[in-house]
Amino acid sequence: MPECHTIPCLLSPWSEWSDCSVTCGKGMRTRQRMLKSAAELGDCNEELEQAEKCMLPECPIDCELTEWSQWSECNTSCGKGHMIRTRMIKVEPQFGGAACPETVQRTKCRVRKCLRGPGMEKRRWKEAR
Fold first, then answer.
1. CA distance linking residue 101 with residue 110, whole number of Å
2. What is the pLDDT of residues 94-127, one digit of tens each?
3. Name one GO cellular component term (predicted).
4. Which of the residues 61, 63, 109, 124 could staple to 74 if both were Cys, CB 3.0 to 4.6 A apart?
5. Going by C-beta distance under 8 Å and a sequence separation of 6 or more, which residues neighbour residue 94?
């Protein structure tokens, strides 16, 4: 029998690399090539697809806040005053993410009218002197 010679694989050129699999951060990209020779002509152990990591600019991270606290007590015991409530920043914005909205809110409150009797006026006048 004459000696058998293996016919080398005939492969197409590599395709262009695909786009990165993500729009920001770490992802993967691939490229392929095709087998041009018929499989029955011999074994072909060449790889037909390659993959590699790709890195795009970091993904934006938006600000994250806790829930609002309960409203505080009114800051006066009579008359007009105010109450406040707060919330904390859990995640600071990064890489162009949405900025944090307000973390303190203030609202008016009125407990009750302050008493002003005739005795009160005399005491104030004495203190002013």
1. 27
2. 999 999 999 999 999 987 888 875 555 445 545 5
3. extracellular matrix
4. 109
5. 58, 60, 61
Non-local CB neighbours of 68 within 8 Å, separated by 6+ positions: 85, 86, 87, 105
**Could you report how far apart the first and last alpha carbons of the chain are, in Å?**
132
CB 86 within 8 A of CB 57: no
Domains of the chain with CATH codes: 10-56 (2.20.100.10), 64-111 (2.20.100.10)
DSSP string, the chain: -PPP-PPPP-BPPPPPPPPPSSSSSEEEEEEE--B-S-GGG------SEEEEEEE-SPPPB--EEPPPPPPPPPSSSSSEEEEEEE--EEE--BTTPPPP--SEEEEEEE--PPP--HHHHHHHHHHH-
Q: ∠84-96-103 over CA atoms, to 5°? A: 5
Q: What is the pLDDT of residues 54-94, one digit of tens each?
A: 999 999 999 999 999 999 999 988 888 999 999 999 999 99
